[in-house]
Amino acid sequence: MIRKLFSLENRKSNNLIGLDKRAAMAIQNHFRLTNYQMLVLSWLKGLWTGILLSLVIHYFLAH
Questions:
Q1: What does residue 52 show for φ and ψ, rounded to 5 degrees?
Q2: Over the stretch 7-43, which tens digit does the pLDDT of each residue have?
Q3: Is residue 24 within 8 Å of 37, Cβ to Cβ?
Q4: Which residues touch 28 (CB under 8 Å, ≥6 apart)?
């Protein structure tokens, strides 16, 4: 089975938004995720980033 990592139609957009869309599609196709699973994955990534950021800020302010 051949999986398309990058669509040829999206090659025109070389800006950051186009790059982000292509990266998201590559992850979604590689791991065979649905749109809802990608939404949950991005939410968990944001939650994890927030937790780590708050721990770093707490460390620097408490010491």
A1: -65, -40
A2: 555 555 578 888 999 999 999 999 999 999 999 999 9
A3: no
A4: 35, 38
The residue behind tokens 């040829």 is 8
The DSSP secondary structure of 44-58, one letter per residue, reads HHHHHHHHHHHHHHH
Q: Looking at the chain, list the stretches that DSSP marks H as alpha helix, in order from N- to C-terminal side.
A: 16-31, 35-62
Q: How many Cβ atoms sit within 10 Å of the Cβ of residue 41?
A: 15
- Tallying the residues shown for the chain, one arrives at 63
Distance CA 26, CA 20 (A): 10
Tokens matching residue 42 = 């991005």
Q: What is the pTM of this model?
A: 0.65
